[in-house]
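FAQ

Q: What does a record look like?
A: Structure on top, sequence underneath. For example:
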């Protein structure tokens, strides 16, 4: 028995069967090159008889990869399929024909409408024909997961005797449970004469979310080839994920006692490439390659990770080509995580200023799902800018609509702690807010410029408002404010500009640049 588990990648064949995932030859070649870098043992490049495009893909991949990897082509147990596959593989340095037939009661009775004896006869003839054309022939017993075990043993014994070098036991409908599937594979080793002459392969579908577990149970029971796809794409709920089985065997090497020769550092790159080409987005919580696979959100976990990564991570992200773990700043993040991220961004804030940024962070985090680096930069910048406040914006309320009269109420707090409230209406909510502020501050000025831009990502992005006001002696003062609500950002910007104007009137404070 082999001392390694072979990785048979079927992204280009079963993976392409994912609804909407069809790829052209150039795209398949790009993926094939990445699969070679990843170090897979076999690339199933297509089903040549199914279309001229599939034929061309198998032909082109065969030419491209040389002897780096076995190139495999799928067929039914039909002579013409096998002959066409052999033609498509003509340039392959290491060609393999993958032929087979249904073996479950359901497939024999309802799909093929033949007896078990006829199926064995066709299978044996197909394997013999294929062996006459290429030296490496894999036989698949379709729907083996639901087959009657005694019939499966008979079929497998016959095809090995006919020359099959690899025998694939697919759980085509994703029906089995790991213990059952492991016993099915174990049963082959007990009951099939000549089993030692073939490599046993597992090909599991994910209809009940068991594909990875079933494949690994198969390996535990003696299988030495796993058929899988990048990101687990494939027919219906998909196939076994290459990244999951590979990392399970690598991380739990003591448990399994056997490994693949996959270069795991290429995993993330392969995942992104397949997702980009097929348009199938990887779910964020997907094991190994999901965007959240190494992201930590809870304050307790973040504290642990920052002290020692292995407290909450069993895989080093670098081992699968991910830049590193990430700390997601949310309302659940603690002070440790915020401080750490600010330091990473190059901010060394004195204690008092950190407290101000922390308070602003919590306020923002309650409104946004996630606080990004750009948000922090704005919060730090804002806190620096507001050190010399004459008036602090405590709250702002506004209504507007159509029909409706835009109205605003603001509360400003002076340095002495006096709370001043006033209201106004205006041509729009920003105008109403500015008039209400003017009623309190009472400093002559003219608004000469107003601009708003999104400074962070997402629908809940921070908007930054920049304004310029001109004082009655002609000097211009800039104000900025950031908030996920742009009216609030506008109120902050205006208060900020007026503060600059006011402090500039005091001899002890430097003038606006
Ligand atoms: O799921 C399956 O049974 C298959 C075979 C064609 C190998 O994809
Ligand atoms: Zn399949």
């Amino acid at each position: 028995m082999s001392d390694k588990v072979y990785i048979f990648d079927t992204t280009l064949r079963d993976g392409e069967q994912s609804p909407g995932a069809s790829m052209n030859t150039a795209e398949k070649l790009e993926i094939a090159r990445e699969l070679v870098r990843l170090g897979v043992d076999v690339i199933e490049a297509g089903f040549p008889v199914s279309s001229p495009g599939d034929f061309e893909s198998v032909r082109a991949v065969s030419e491209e990869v040389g002897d780096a990897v076995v190139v495999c082509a799928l067929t039914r147990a039909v002579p013409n399929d096998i002959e066409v596959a052999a033609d498509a593989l003509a340039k392959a340095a290491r060609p393999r024909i993958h032929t087979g037939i249904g073996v479950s009661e359901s497939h024999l009775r309802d799909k093929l409408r033949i007896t078990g004896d006829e199926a064995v006869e066709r299978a044996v003839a197909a394997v013999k024909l294929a062996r006459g054309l290429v030296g490496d022939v894999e036989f698949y017993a379709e729907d083996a997961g639901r087959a009657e075990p005694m019939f499966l043993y008979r079929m497998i014994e016959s095809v090995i005797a006919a020359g099959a070098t690899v025998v694939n036991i697919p759980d085509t409908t994703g029906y089995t449970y790991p213990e059952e599937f492991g016993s099915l594979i174990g049963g082959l080793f007990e009951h099939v004469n000549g089993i030692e002459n073939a490599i046993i392969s597992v090909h599991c579908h994910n209809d009940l979310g068991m594909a990875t577990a079933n494949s690994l149970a198969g390996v535990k029971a003696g299988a030495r080839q796993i058929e899988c796809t990048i990101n687990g794409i494939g027919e219906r709920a998909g196939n076994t994920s290459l990244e999951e089985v590979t990392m399970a065997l690598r991380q739990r090497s003591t448990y399994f006692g056997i490994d693949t020769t996959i270069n795991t550092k290429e995993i993330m790159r392969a995942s992104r490439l397949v997702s980009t080409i097929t348009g199938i987005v990887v779910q964020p919580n997907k094991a190994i390659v999901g965007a959240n696979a190494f992201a930590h959100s809870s304050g307790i976990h973040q504290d642990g990770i920052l002290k020692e990564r292995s407290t909450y991570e069993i895989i080093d992200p670098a081992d699968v080509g991910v830049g590193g773990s990430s700390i997601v700043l949310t309302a659940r993040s603690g002070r440790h995580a915020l401080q750490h991220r600010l330091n990473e961004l190059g901010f060394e804030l004195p204690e008092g200023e950190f407290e101000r940024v922390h308070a602003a962070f919590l306020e923002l985090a309650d409104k946004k799902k996630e606080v990004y680096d750009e948000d922090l930069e704005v919060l730090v910048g804002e806190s620096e800018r507001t050190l010399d406040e004459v008036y602090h914006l405590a709250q702002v309320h506004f209504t507007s609509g159509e029909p409706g009269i835009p109205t605003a109420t603001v509360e400003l707090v002076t340095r002495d702690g006096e709370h001043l409230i006033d209201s106004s209406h205006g041509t729009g909510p920003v105008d109403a807010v500015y008039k209400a502020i003017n009623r309190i501050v009472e400093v002559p000025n003219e608004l000469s410029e107003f601009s708003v831009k999104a400074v962070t990502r997402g629908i809940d992005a921070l908007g930054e408002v920049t304004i310029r006001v001109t004082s009655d002696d002609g000097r211009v003062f800039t104000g900025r404010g950031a908030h996920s609500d742009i009216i609030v950002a506008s109120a902050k910007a205006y208060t900020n500009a007026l503060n600059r104007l006011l402090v500039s009137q005091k001899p002890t404070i430097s003038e606006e640049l």
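Q: Is there anything notable about this one?
A: The CA atoms of residues 153 and 190 lie 10 Å apart.
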